[in-house]
Amino acid sequence: MIAVLKSGTTPDQVQHLVAWLKNMSLDVHISEGAEVTVLGLIGDTSRVDMDLLKSLDMVETVKRVSEPFKQANRKFHPNDSIINAGDVRIGRGYFAMIAGPCSVESEEQIIEVATAVKASGANILRGGAFKPRTSPYAFQGMKGEGIQLLLKAKQATGLPIVTEIMNISTLDLFADVDIIQVGARNMQNFDLLKELGKTRKPILLKRGLANTLQELLMSAEYIMSEGNENIILCERGIRTFETYTRNTLDLSAVAALHELSHLPVVVDPSHATGKAKMVSPMACAAVAAGADGLMIEVHNNPSCALCDGAQSLTPQQFDDVCQRVNRIREAMA
Amino acid sequence: MIAVLKSGTTPDQVQHLVAWLKNMSLDVHISEGAEVTVLGLIGDTSRVDMDLLKSLDMVETVKRVSEPFKQANRKFHPNDSIINAGDVRIGRGYFAMIAGPCSVESEEQIIEVATAVKASGANILRGGAFKPRTSPYAFQGMKGEGIQLLLKAKQATGLPIVTEIMNISTLDLFADVDIIQVGARNMQNFDLLKELGKTRKPILLKRGLANTLQELLMSAEYIMSEGNENIILCERGIRTFETYTRNTLDLSAVAALHELSHLPVVVDPSHATGKAKMVSPMACAAVAAGADGLMIEVHNNPSCALCDGAQSLTPQQFDDVCQRVNRIREAMA
Amino acid sequence: MIAVLKSGTTPDQVQHLVAWLKNMSLDVHISEGAEVTVLGLIGDTSRVDMDLLKSLDMVETVKRVSEPFKQANRKFHPNDSIINAGDVRIGRGYFAMIAGPCSVESEEQIIEVATAVKASGANILRGGAFKPRTSPYAFQGMKGEGIQLLLKAKQATGLPIVTEIMNISTLDLFADVDIIQVGARNMQNFDLLKELGKTRKPILLKRGLANTLQELLMSAEYIMSEGNENIILCERGIRTFETYTRNTLDLSAVAALHELSHLPVVVDPSHATGKAKMVSPMACAAVAAGADGLMIEVHNNPSCALCDGAQSLTPQQFDDVCQRVNRIREAMA
Amino acid sequence: MIAVLKSGTTPDQVQHLVAWLKNMSLDVHISEGAEVTVLGLIGDTSRVDMDLLKSLDMVETVKRVSEPFKQANRKFHPNDSIINAGDVRIGRGYFAMIAGPCSVESEEQIIEVATAVKASGANILRGGAFKPRTSPYAFQGMKGEGIQLLLKAKQATGLPIVTEIMNISTLDLFADVDIIQVGARNMQNFDLLKELGKTRKPILLKRGLANTLQELLMSAEYIMSEGNENIILCERGIRTFETYTRNTLDLSAVAALHELSHLPVVVDPSHATGKAKMVSPMACAAVAAGADGLMIEVHNNPSCALCDGAQSLTPQQFDDVCQRVNRIREAMA
Predict the structure, then answer these.
(1) Contact predicate B98/B126, CB 8 Å
(2) How far away is chain B from the Cα of D176, in angstroms, using its nearest Cα?
(3) Average pLDDT score over residue span A107-114
(4) How far, in Å, CA of A8 to CA of A11, rounded?
(5) Which chains neighbour B (Cβ–Cβ under 8 Å, 3 or more pairs)?
(6) Which of A27, A60, A65 is opposite residue D60, by nearest beta carbon?
(7) Could you tell me if A284 and A210 lie in one domain?
(8) What is the pLDDT of residues B92-135, one digit of tens each?
(9) Is residue D107 domain-resident?
C-alpha cells in the first residue's frame, strides 16, 4: 500500500503517522521526493482502513498495490480451481450448463423440465424455492416444499441441484442441495456469507446489481476466510441506464475475473436481459468470452400460451441454445 | 394497472389473457382503440407480477397507475407520521439531531462524545457496534459489548440510542436500543426486514447504494406489512460516477419521499460525502430541503492528531453545524 | 402514444387536453375506465413533447407505443441494411474488420500498420487525426496532416479508411475519407449530426458513454432525417461503476440494436476495455453476439518496448484475434 | 504525478521508462522500496497521457498528485472569481437569480415573463432560442429570431440575458448576448469550447449528464486555456437510476467545486428535478449548500390551463421561491 502525503506536511506529522502505522504491525518505507513524500506500507495491509487513511488531512492519496483479497486471488493460486457439485466438475475446462425454471411450482413441472433440459445437455438443475421479491405482496416461493420437489427431480434425473438461500436459519433444509446460491441482493449480507463459509457446500455467488468486481471478490473472500473454498462466481447483469434490457450483462467481467481470480465464472443471460430472444446470443457471447458455465431459465408450460414471450426459454429453445453453445465451444477448443 | 396490448393481438389471445387476470381476482376493463387495446386492471394489483406480464409476447407495455406500496403511501395516510424513540419525536416538525461516533470504541469515548453532542443540541446518540465491512479482515465492531457501552452512555446522558443490526439472530441484544438501524447493504435483505416488522421498535432504514426511492419504500413496506409502522427513512448518498465524494447525496430524495410517503426522512451527510469539510454545507442543504433530521458522525479523540481530517467532526465542529442548522430552521419556520 | 389521466380529472379538463392534442393534428381516442381515463393518440406522435405532456397535473403517465425513431426502425425496414465503404460492404452477413492505430503518428507508422493488418484480414483501416481529449494540454492529433497520411496508406494498401470528425468546419478535409466517425462525446452534438446528414458519406456513430440505445438510435435518426441513410452503429463501452476496465462493453446492445434497427452494429473492444489482454475474449464474444464488425487498435512500435502492455495490440496479437474470430464466425454460419 | 511500478520490473525497464518520461521534459525522482518502485514525476504533468502510462505492463498504478486543471484551480487562484455580465456580478457573495422561460415563444411572452421575474428579484433573464432536442422531429427553437426577442426583453427590462449556443457558426448572433450557455450535451464538444475561449463573453458551462466534476473543470480549462476566464459553472442534475426525478441534483457538487475551483457555481433545480413542486425545496437547498446563483424556469401562460403542473413555475410561484431563498441567504449571512 502506498500513501502519498501532501506537500507541506511537517516532519512531526510524518513521524506521528508512521508511528500509528507501525502500531498496526506494518513496516513503513519513507521516500521523500522534491514535491511529495511517499510512504510504502509493507505487511498485512488488508487490515488497514483505507478510508480512514485517505481522510487524514496530510494524506493526498492512498493506493493499494496488492489486492485486498487473498484466498480468491490468482496471484497466490495460479491454477484455475475446480468446484465439485455431485458428480459434476466446474472450472478448468469443465463446463456447467445449469438450467431449470425460475420458481419450482409443482412436482410435475420440475421433473418435466429437469428431464427435458438433461436431454438437451444440462448437467445441473436450477429452481427457486425461496424467492427474493421487491414486494412483500408478491409470491415468495414454495420454500421448504420447493426444495423437497427439487430433490425429487434430482432423484429422478440424477442432476445435481442449485437453489437460493436467503436466511441462514433455513440452512438445514439445504442438507441435500448440491450448490447453494447467494442472490445479487445478498451479495453483501456479510453475516450470511460468514455462516456459509462454515459449511463446505459449493456456493454460487451472484454479483450485486451495482457492485464492482473487487467487491464481488471480497464477498467470495468472506466465505473463503471461514474455510469454504468452493465458490462459483456468477455474472448476472448490472444496473445501468439502459432500459431495453432488464440489466446490462457485463461480459468483460468474465475475462477480468479470470485474470484476478482462480475461481470459475458462470453467466446468467436470462436474468441479465429479461428477454427470451436475447438469451441465445448472450449465451453464445458468454461462452466466447470464456465463461465456465451458463445458467438459463427454462419453463415447460405447454398449456399456458400466455408465457411464450417470457424471459424463460421453452425446452426446444433451450435445446437450440445448447447446440449453438457447443459449436462455439468446439471452435474455441 | 394498465396493460397495452400489441396491435395484431387476436381476440382469442385477449380473451386468454383476460381470463388469466380475472383468475387473480382482478376486474379487467377492456378498451379497444384503433391501434391498440388497453386493459385496465382493477383490484389488488400489488400481487400482479409486472415482469411476467410485460414479458408476454402480446403485451406492449405495462404501467402501474397506483404505487405498489400501500402502508408507506401518503395517498392512504395524508398526514406526516411521527415516530417516537424514547422521549424524542421525529417527523411532522419534530427534528432528530442524531450524532455520535462511527464505531463504539470504549466506555470513556462513547460517554464523552455523547455528553458533548448533547450539549450542542443532539437529541439521539448513534454509534456502531456491529459494523458491515467490505473486507472480512477489517474491524467488525465491538458487537454486543458495544451495545452495552451505548446503553451506559444512554444512562449517563438520557439520550435515546440508535445502532445497526446485521443479523436477526442478535435481536435480543437490541432489547433496550431505542432505534434499530438497517444499513444500506441490507436494504433488500427481505428476511431481516420481515423479522424487524414483527417487532415494534422504530427502524431507521437506510437507502441502498444503487436503489431507487420506490425500492426504498418497498423495503419499508416489507417491515410495515408485518405490523411495525415505526419507520424512519434515511438518505445516505448513492453510488454515481463522481469520485470526489464517497457517494452522492441525493437531496431531492427528501422532497420526493415527502411527496410519496408520510414517513419521516433523515439525512446522513457524513457517509454521503466522506469528507468532514462537506458535512456542514450538506447538513444545511438537507435542512433547507425539508429533512426531518440529520445523522452526523462526531468523534472525540484529542490525543490522536491524525484524525483531524476524517469524515467525523470534532465536537467543536459539530457545535458549529448545529448553530448553522438552527439558523436555517428558524428562517424556514 | 397512450396518456393515462389521473382519477379525479374533470370532464372539462379532459376536453381541454383533447382540444390541445387535436390542435397538433392528432386523433384522440378516449377510453373511460372505472378508475382511469386513457387517451390513445393516433397520428404523428413523434412531434409530441412527452416531457411536457407528462408534466401536466392531470396526467398520470405517458407511454409511447411506437418508437420515436422511424428511418432507423426495423419495423419500417425489416431487412438488414448494407453499408458500402469503398469496395467493402458492412451488414447482412458482410463483416467489417476495422483495425489501425489510435492516432496517426507518421507516414511510416500508418503504412506499416495498414500493411500488417491487411495481411491478417482487416478490410478497413482506422487511425485518429482529430483526437478528442479531456485535457486541452494533451496531444490533439495531427489533424489535416493525419488525414493526408491515412490517404497515403489507403493508396498503398487499397483499404478504405475511417477517421473521426469533431467539427463540421473541417468537412472538406474528409472528401476522400470512406467512413466518417462521430465519437462518443459528440453523439448528441445535434448540429454536427444534421450537417453529416446532408452528406452521403457512411457515418460510424459511436454510442455515448452514458447513453441509452434509444438515444443512440435518435442520433442516427438525426442524420437519416437529413437524407443520409449510411449509418454504422458502434458499441464502444458505457460508463459504469466498474473500474477494472476503462468502460463496460455492453454486448447485449448488439442483439438489442439488431431487434430495434436494420442498421449494422460494430463493436470496439479496445476502447471498451482499455486492456490489450481483454481485446481477444471481447472480440470473440462480440462476434458470437452477432456483431457486424469489429474495430480494434493495432500499433506497430517495435522500437518502443514501453508500449507492450497498452490497449493496442501488436500486429501478431491482432493476427491471432483474426484467427479466433474467424473460427467463431465459421461455427456460427 | 506518481507512478508505482510492479514488483519484478527490471532495472533495464525502469531506465527505459525514465528516459521516455524525461523526454517529455519531466524530472523523475526514483524511490525504490522493498516491494515496489515509485517514480515521482515533476514538471508539467498535464501533458502526460495517464491512460497510456497506466497501460504499460510494468506500471501498477498512476496517480495524479496535482489536479490536471490549472487556470480553473483554486490552488493557483485562492480568491473567488467574480464574473461580470452587464451590470450584474456573480460570485464572491454576489448572487445570480436567473429566471425565464424554457423557450422563447413570442415577444409578448418573453417581455411579460422578464417583467414579472424582475419584479420578484431576478437579475438575469434566461430563454432558449437554439434548443438541443433528442428527437430531430421536435421543436428546435426560434433560433436567431428568438435571440432578437430576448434582446427586446433586455431593452425593456434592463436585465442581462443568457441563452444557449449549439454551433460556433452562429456566434455572430450572440454579439449582444451577455452570457453564452453551453448545454450539458455539449460539455465535451471540445472544438466549441476552444472557440468560445477565443471570445471574452461570460460562459455558463453546464455539467454533462454523466460527467465528473474533474471533467467539468477540464472543460472549463479548455475555454480558459484560450484566454477566456469568464466561466460560470452550472450543476443541473446528473443521470442516476432514480426515475422519480428527471435527473438527480448533486448539491455536494457545489461544495466540492468551491473547494477545487475559484469559479462561481450556479444551480438549475428546474431541469434537475423536472417537477415544479420540487423546485422550491431544491432552490433553498442549493442556496444553503453555498450556490452563487440559481437558474429557474418561469413561464407565463395564463390562457393555457394545461401547463399548470409543468416543470416551469408561474410568476407567483417564482416570487414565493425568491422570498424563501432570501430568508435562507439572510440566515447564512
Answers:
(1) yes
(2) 36
(3) 96
(4) 9
(5) A, C, D
(6) A65
(7) yes
(8) 999 999 999 999 999 999 999 999 999 999 999 999 999 999 88
(9) yes
